[in-house]
Amino acid sequence: MTPGPHDLDLAIPGTPPGPGTKARQRKLAINRLRERRPLTEEAVDRFLASNEAPIVEGFRCTFLFRGDADEVHLRHRIVNQPQRVPLRRVQDTSLWAVVVELPAGSRVEYQLEVRRGDHTEEVNDPLNPRVAHSPVGSSSVCHASGYTTPEWTHPDPHARQGEFLDLPLQSRALRRWTHTRVYLPPRFRPTSRYPLLVVHDGDDYLNYAAMGTVLDNLIHRLDMAETIVAFSNPGDRIREYANHAGHARHVTSELLPRLQQDFPLIDRPDARCLMGASFGAVAALTTAYRNAGVYGNLLLQSGSFVFTDIGEDHGGGPEFDPVVRFMNRYRARPRRVADHMYLSCGVYEPLIVPNRSMVPVFESTGAAVRYVEARDGHSWENWRDRLRDGLSWIYPGPQKLVYE
Amino acid sequence: MPTESPGRTATAPAPEPAGTDGHGAGRPRVVLLGPQRHPTVDTVLRDLGLCGRRVGMVTAGWREREPEDELLADLVGGNAVNLRLWHRMQQVWEADPELAEADTRRRARLEEMQELYLRGLGHAMHAVADLAEHHARHPDLVEAARDDAVRIIRRMDTRHLERVAEVHAEFWGAWPPHERPALAEARAQVAADLAGVEALVVTGGHVGVLVGAMHLFNVAPQVAHLPVIAWGAGAMALTDRVVLFHDRAAHGPAVAEVFTGGLGMVHDVVALPSARDRLALGDRARMALLQQRFAPARCVPLDERVRVEIDAGGRLPDGTPVLGEDGAITGWRDQP
Fold first, then answer.
1. Half-sphere exposure of A316 (CA within 13 A, CB side)
2. Which of A106, A116, A236, A248 is an S-S bond match for A287, by CB 3.0 to 4.6 Å?
């Protein structure tokens, strides 16, 4: 964990060295560059032209910055690790570097903090074209050894596209207009009956987790049942998603009846699923809790399931107060909220502990629980990458019935 | 009794006459093929002397893509007739909503039965796996406990199949097909299409839809005297027991499950289409358990270029690839 004379290792405790073990014995590209005498800017030019940044060599990732600066730091959000890691200037050149260990399969979002005199700014890595987007901006992305973006997240020319319909709805429960996008699967037939998935933060799932493309692909490949998906969107998200009675009433007494009226839905709890990430997962959980027996399935990603075992000091800020009150009450007296619960969480996010802690609690209610962890953070691409596993588990496709 | 090397083409040793008109003497009754990505159905028809003859096609497993049969019709030889079972089934449901509603209720009941059976099956399979992990102080005791668990699984498989058959029998008892004009008319149309047909080709696709459609239009008795060539779901549909399997499902290996009775044109065979793609064939213990569950029926992997010709006596020819007791694929050899 202590930077060496040239490297700084960010080893994740308890993880095997992985496929990069041999790479440790090989000299890293950055170290070969450092050994050059003299080291010129032209050599740095050639180095950058022949390497993608960050440079991934086994489990070691070399982060780079080039330019005038007084200090450069790598900023990331891997929990329990130093989140501000200094880069060091490579000899007297304009190149800065730090080597970080990342276990195989990791995907890490980061930025670079650059200080020039009194001015400090956080920027995406100018040398790295990989960028992840979210409602709060964008970040650079490091794909560690072994990570690849799942191919089913990219548009497949053979997969037919579903259709989107806008569903504006005046909500008395929320005292505002709500805006939901309804996805009808390819080859939708009004005479058929479909299961329903209600997605919290719907537009974010579509924009940042490629969920429209994912649905088209999973349905095309028979991994997932043909499903009608309601992408709902919050108004005041922090208020509405934190165990809010109005939200639960809107989803169950306003949105669901309207969807049942307009679309051919299977009218059974096992054909209804609520889904969400972060606070959206809290909204899904609490909506199901407040409407026992209505929803048979929950798909919860990186749920903000913050609780306290002693006292009320949770450290999450006032927006978490209603969440903590709910979670503490629920943990004291758990009851079944759905028959099937899919949970996923990134091991690099602070919410990993509450999520792990909730698994046995949910299991104790008799629910079938599938819990999956990934070497990723609290990010939309993490949630995107788990969609195939989650959706195919909640609503399995007819693949087991189809034989070419 | 398995032999050492499974052949790609297996033919019954002394085929009995399949036809009643003297032309079909020596033809196999049923030919099961591997997937047709690189079609061999044309070769099979040529070998059987059926080139250019009138051939019926069932593509109902393709569901709404049922009409997209141009390539198959070309391979069959131009004188083909698609029975359009899926299309006709939709027409029956539209014309007879009361029957359609009853069918929906039947399917809902079957769906829940399948779910309950699968849930119990999962626990029983887990028990077998758990026993396999047990550090045996007395191996014979572990073996006996495992045998007990497998016996329970076999019983669950059998009972499930019986219950499914009971649901179907109850349905047809309550809704006699000859009393439903739309269905009776569609059956007559299918029968008319089958008149003069000299062979039937059944493709893959959705095995539930395919079996349902072939039962609905009572196809099996009408083709009892014809050679039938089938692959994928079509091959499964011809057997007396359809077993679903997918070891490479999106969220991990699925437990193989009995689904329904088939048309019973091939007995004591569990058809396993695209086995190399869908089964963990390298997991010998898993494959051995699969075979053990359905013995004395034989599990027959139907991979690319496999061709299994079964005569009217229903005998599985020597050399047919089957799962052996040890879980390895081996060649079948009948008792001398």
1. 21
2. A248
d(CA B240, CA B238): 7
**Does the beta-carbon distance from B207 to A401 stay under 8 Å?**
yes
User: How far off is chain B from A401, nearest CA to CA, in Å?
Assistant: 5
Question: Which parts of chain A register pLDDT below 70?
Answer: 1-25
Contacts of A207 by beta carbon, 8 Å cutoff, 6+ apart:
A133
pLDDT (0 to 100) of residue B24: 53
* Domain boundaries of chain B, sorted by first residue: 2-41+198-332, 97-178
| Integer Cα distance of A301 and A295 in angstroms | 17
What would be the CATH architecture of the domain defined by A18-143?
A: Sandwich (2.60)
Average pLDDT, chain B: 91
Q: CB under 8 Å to B123, separation ≥6 — which residues?
A: none
Using a CB-CB cut-off of 8 Å, the residues of chain B touching A218 are 250
Q: Is B114 on the interface with A (CB under 8 A)?
A: no
Residue A233: per-residue pLDDT: 98
**Which stretches of chain B score pLDDT less than 50?**
1-5, 13-23
Q: Which two tokens stand for residue A99?
A: 């080597």
Which phi-psi region, left, alpha or beta, contains residue A293 (left: φ > 0; alpha: ψ -120 to 50)? left
**Measured between alpha carbons, how far is B43 from B26 in angstroms, rounded to an integer?**
17
Alpha-carbon distance of A303 to A288, in angstroms, equals 14
Closest Cα in chain A, distance from residue B250 (Å)? 6
Question: Alpha helix (H) ranges present in B175-241?
Answer: 181-194, 207-216, 219-222, 233-238
